[in-house]
Each structure stands twice: as C-alpha cells, then as structure tokens.
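Anyone else keep sequences and structure tokens together like this?

Example one:
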Amino acid sequence: MFEYSGKTNLIQWRARDYILNDVSEPELYRDFFPYDEIPKVAFNHRIVPINMPDEIWITDTTFRDGQQSITPYTTEQIVKIFEYLHRLSGPKGIVRQSEFFLYSKKDRDAVYRCLEKGYEFPEVTSWIRASKKDFELVKELGMKESGILVSCSDYHIFLKMKMTRRQAIDHYIGIVRECIESGVRPRCHLEDITRADYYGFVVPFAIELMALSREAKIPIKIITGNWMTNIIKYVNIIFLPLKTTCNLFNLLHYRFLLLRNNKNGLCLLYIFLDCLFRLSKPVLIILLFQDRLRDCVPSLRNMRLYLFLTNQHIFSNSF
C-alpha cells in the first residue's frame, strides 16, 4: 500500500496490518537470552531515520517510579515537589502531566491535595495495573486520565499472568473500554516490549487499541517502556525486538498515538562511563527527585563489581 506522507513529502510504502500470532507456547527468545551464556546482541545494519515530533513535553513519574528507589515520600513532600514541578513547567506546560500511584492512603491523600491546587500543569494522572480492582480507585478519586500497565512479553503473559496472547489482549481491551465508558482517558503503558514478539503481539495489539479509539472517538495514548536495551552504543543497528529506536520508529510508522519511551536511566551510566574512562575526571550526577534511579542503580552496581575485579577501586560503598 502506498501513501503520501505530509511530514516527509514522500510517497511511502505502508505494510499491511499485522495479525495476532496466538501461539500455544511462549516465545522467550532464548537465542538472545540463554541461561548458560551471556545475552546476545544481533546486528542487522538498518539505520532508523530521525523522526522528531511536532511537540515535546515531559511526563513526570517522580511519585510513581521515583518512589521505588528511596524511602517513599510523605504526603507533605509529594505536595511540595508537585508545587516545584508546577513552577518548572511554566505556562506552556513543559511538564505536562504527573503520574501517581493510588494504592496507599498516603498516595490518595496526596492526589486530593494536589488536585486542590487547581494547576493546569502538570495534570494529575494515575497509574494502575490492568485490573478492575485498581480501576475502582481511579473512579473513586475522579481521575481524568489514567495509565494502565499492559505487559507485552510472553514472560509476563504466559509465565506470570497465565494467559494466552489473545486472552491478554481481550483482558487489556476490556479495562481500556471500561475507562472510556467511565469518561477516563486511557494511557496504555506497553511494558517489556523489548522481550515481546513485536509483529506477532505488540503491533496487532496497538492496531486493536487504535480501532477502539476510532470507535469511541477518544484518543488512546500508547506509552512504550523498555527494560532490556539502551546498553549498546551502536544505537541504530540492533535487531528487533531489543532495539528501542526500532520499536519507536515502527510504532510511529503505523501512526499510533505514541507518547514516549521513558526508561532512560542507563543514559546516566553512559555519562558516568565516558567521564571515568575518557576524561578521567570526577563526576557529579544530579538526579531530580531520584526519578529513574532504580533503572540505573543495578547497572552501576554491576559496573562497580567489574571495576573491583579489575583492581580499579574508584567507588565508595554507597552503591
């Protein structure tokens, strides 16, 4: 199928829609992740084009991911940080939204307190698992938008959720549909897509989400998340499903409403490594409210072990 792109001013080929591959056994990519050897990295020498969006903004996860790396914030601390984020955002909404857990009374109290501020930016949004019990909290607090965890790899679908791919999609779609019917804007967090069957599950699932969006005439946001990538500097030539830039480009190519990829903690590790081994100078890394620290710390610990074994004692025991 050919179509004209108003963004590139080119006639482009658009692949046919992909159909769900509802396998009977999980695809665990043992070629990439064997148990008896180190993980493999395959190269296909395909360059991913630069594809900048028309608008860029920040979605803050300090009160969600940021609380998983340190002692959880008090309600007062959450409200104070939220005020700082409002000041940083400015009138144009550079910090567009902030994501909150709803599970504890402390978190719910913080949501009420932040909503009472009446700020346009950042908008207070929630983040839940794909369960009816979690969604009841969203309705109870009167949230306008909520993130929904929709894990995509067979590690999660088969081994944790004990479902088939078709059952997982039906389950996810059911929660998203309930959001729409309740007047809540759904934001689907496609987690673990770097270990998922990209064309056999991720793209077909996104196609079904967009079909639901057209039917309901309500935008459904798709958020990508990765856990197993950003570790190789040859960023443009890593084979799917591992490479996040390939995943992002392909989702954009299918014109899904893609918001962001937010698992960038290992970028801090690169800065750290470059300073250590190229500049040989002291390094100061400032993490805003500890956000994304939990993605980075395990790798820093591994790096510390490596440097210890090579007799490069440059770390304190604080890691």
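And example two:
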Amino acid sequence: MKTTLSITLIVLAALLAACSGQKIGEGPSTGGTTSGSAVRLQGSGATFPKPIYEKWANEFQKVDPNVRIDYQGTGSGAGQKAILAKTSDFGATDDPMSDEDLKSAGAEILHIPTVLGAVVVTYNLEGIKEPLKLTPQNISDIYLGNIKKWNDPKLKAENPNAALPDAEILPVYRADASGTSAVFTDFLSKTVPEWKDKVGTNKQPSWITGVGVGAKGNDGVMGQVKQTPNAIGYVELTFAKANNLPTAEVKNKAGKFVAASLESVSAAAAGSVASMPEDLRTAITNADGEASYPIASYTYILVYKDQADVVKGKAIADFLWWATHDGEKFAADLHYAQLPGELVKKVEAKIASMTSGGKPLRQ
C-alpha cells in the first residue's frame, strides 16, 4: 500500500511540474543542473542557419558530452518571441531585433553573429541550362505581379539565349515571420522604389493579393518550388544546393550579375565590420563591390547577457565560444561563410561579457 501511495505521489509531482508553465531558466534554484549531469539547452528561431546549428549541436556534444542542444527552426519572428518570453534558452534570427523589442525585454539581450549566408532566388524551369540573370527590378516585378510569364520581354532582355517558356510564373514566398523574408525585402526596398512603397522591409510583409503562394520555412518554400513547374522562390543557399535546384545570378550595386558563393558573400561582408555598431546589429544587403553578392546576411543567436541559471548560462557561453571558433570549420561544407577575423574579436568580447548574477560565465 505504501509503495502504491509513493508511486502515485511521484506521478502527481511530475504532472504538476510539467504543467506549471515555468519559464526556461527560472527554476527555484539559481544553481541550475547538478554538476556532471546532462545540461539541456533549447533553441528556436531562424530556419536560415538550421543546417549548421544542427551540425554544431551534434559536434559540440562530442566536445562536452554533458550538453544536449535541441534547435527548432521556427522562423526568426518566432525565435525573437521565444527569447522575449523566455520559453527558449536562446533565440535565433537573421533580422536583428528592433530597438522597441529590445527595450521590452526588461534585460539586455546580446546579438551574437555566427555565420554569413546568402538568400538565393531559385526556380523550377525545364530545359534551362545556364543560371538565369535577374535584376532587382525583375525580381520585384515578379513578386508585385507586374511580370506574369517567363517569356516576358524584360526577362528575355537579360537572358537572350535562354529558352524561356510561355508559361505563368508562380512566385512562392514565406508565410511565416521570417528573417529570410526580412533580408529579401530589405534588398528590394533598397533597390526598387515601387517595392519600398508597396511592400517595404518586413519579416512578414503584406504580399500582393492574388500573386503567388505562401509556404512555411525555408524548407517549405523549397519544397513548393521543387514540386511546382515554373515556380520561383527565395531560400537560403544551403536549401537550394541540397535539393539540386538552380539559383539565379543577381545584379549587384556595381551593375554586375553575381552568383551566391562563399566568396561573394564574404565580399559583401568585407566592408561591414569597421562600421558595425557596438551591438553588432547590421545589414549587408546591396553591398558595395563588384564581387559582392547583393542578398547576403549575417545570422545571429540571441541570448540574455545575464543568465538566470548559472549552469545553463555557462553551457550557452561555452557553446557560443566553440561555435564561433572551432565550429566555423563546418561552415563551408554547408554553404555558409565564416565570420571575418576582425568580427570574431568583437564576438569574443560579447561572449566574455555574459554573466550570471553579475559574475562572468567564462573565466
């Protein structure tokens, strides 16, 4: 009888703990997880860096077997909401948080750049062997509904040797709040006045009614383009490479058509470090330079500077340090560019500033 009662009490206690709604990092003890036991970190946000964050989570477990990291690609908007609500240990975003959102946090949130990537325009066109050349105006016109068919004279003018079909274009866009959309729309807002007036820069813009279809996440947009002939969409480069779909060369600020690559993304970032603000929030779309790919971006992990849980906080700080140093070697194979060396020094200072109860997490 006593055994049955004990089991019942244990089950009740477990159910109460699970249903308490307690926010991550706000347990009754500031000591966190007992030393030597597993530390579980939950991250959520941008789908843009999901492939490398999953790789890092696996590789870091080899470095520190006590740390388990689960990363969910929920979109940059959801990642920002999660860090503000403290329902994840770290958030992730391609689009830096706004001043207003940072003020609403009630405590300082750090933006830690991790890698650089490209937002590419991918398409599903049979018989097209060479990469399409697209101007910012072309891309804008397709998503505004001004260009409706692939054989439109404006597209043929930039691609005279391509057998563009007499077929309706299906633009595919992100249906969720997305840093990828923020980067894509920021580029178009900087280059096409009509786009800036009608759509603007936004994680979740008001798309033109009747033009295109929405899909959730980079993988959702990629899947929609892959299965739909004559579709076009925008995704992070890794997703297009993984699905063997072509990517367009995009006309940059210098008037050159440039393909997305590690070199062209790094070229876009080259001039940004010196002028980067102290909080490291910046955009590098439509960058100067003939070799620059124009739809490039940093991606960020979001963490509270002062961590409520000292054990989790140290695990996060150690992971970020490892990721932005040893972890960078995994970037190229997944089609991301490493952080510039000058920026790594600034990142080191940000990670070193992380505390718990005012005490440094990295000694």
